[in-house]
Specification:
By secondary structure, this protein is α/β, with parallel strands linked by helices. Helix content is 42%, strand content 21%. A seven-stranded mixed beta sheet has the order 3-2-1-4-5-7-6, sandwiched between helices. Bound molecules: ligand GEK. The site of ligand GEK has 20 residues, from α3 and β2.
Length: 241
């Protein structure tokens, strides 16, 4: 795994974060050292796929990056007639995702699409996953996207939404943000790297509160929404149709 050194050197000005070739080359290391609990979300996406994958259905990995969630689903689906659709709009991510899926030996078919998930045509979904992707979608387009996902979800199907969240309470936000900073320091990032990455993400990653996510998911048409994971300001929810 190539080490993420993107923000190691001091930059005159920090460009907006983009999922380009440089990021995709170090992404596995970057996300593991930046998102506390990321490995656990992947492991539990596998568990959720076992529970919710239905025969003759599709499983969507939206914002698939290198295909980590896709592979977690692929190795755990017990229904033979499922197909996985992995979507990402970054050409660099999709190229590496294709290589990773090609190297993998599991049998469930996977379609890999370089596409904006805002135009993906969803159908017969027993499971859809957005593992830290909705936060990059413009806020005003999120409700419509969630509605299209909910509309395409089969009865009893599930949607996993993992996100970095906005915290309203000043005290809570300070404590959780400091702990996240400490997590990144413990993972080997310097204060400069942490500050430059934060600045790059400033207008790119726009978090919502858990309450907003739950309300949006219910509004979209999911019957039940449960928070199943939280570590500092990172959460994952499961919504059931
Ligand atoms: C994982 N889920 O490893 N359409 C398609 N893809 C998009 C869009 C869009 N409109 N906007 C952003 N992306 C993965 C990790 S990373 C999370 C997901 C992170 C893609 C973007 O190109 C990137 O690959 C991914 O969403 C977000 O389980 O970097 O924190």
């Amino acid at each position: 795994m190539r080490k993420d050194n993107i923000y190691t050197a001091a930059k005159q000005s920090v460009d907006q974060f983009r999922f380009d070739e440089h990021v995709s080359a170090v992404f596995a290391d970057m996300i593991e050292r930046s998102v506390p609990g990321y490995g656990l979300t992947l492991e539990m996406i596998g568990v959720i796929a076992r529970q919710y994958g239905q025969a003759n259905s599709y499983c969507y990995d939206l914002g698939c990056s290198l295909g980590a969630s896709t592979l977690a689903i692929r190795h755990n689906l017990t229904n033979p007639d499922c197909k996985i659709i992995a979507v990402d709009n970054s050409a660099a991510m999709i190229a590496r995702c294709r290589e990773n899926v090609k190297k993998d030996t599991a049998e469930v078919p996977v379609d890999i699409l370089q596409q904006d998930i805002l135009v993906t045509d969803f159908k017969q979904a027993s499971l859809s996953v957005m593992n830290f992707t909705l936060q990059f979608i413009p806020a005003e387009q999120r409700a419509e996207l969630l509605k299209r996902i909910a509309d395409a979800t089969l009865k009893g199907g599930a949607f996993v939404l993992s996100e970095k969240i906005k915290v309203e309470s000043d005290d809570e936000r300070q404590v959780l943000t400091d702990l996240h900073h400490q997590f990144k320091s413990s993972s080997g990032y310097s204060d400069l790297e942490i500050a430059q990455k934060r600045s790059a993400l400033e207008d790119v990653l726009i978090p919502d509160t858990v309450a907003t996510h739950i309300s949006n998911l219910k509004q979209a048409g999911f019957r039940h929404v449960h928070l199943w994971f939280q570590c500092f300001t990172f959460v994952s929810m499961i919504a059931i149709k």
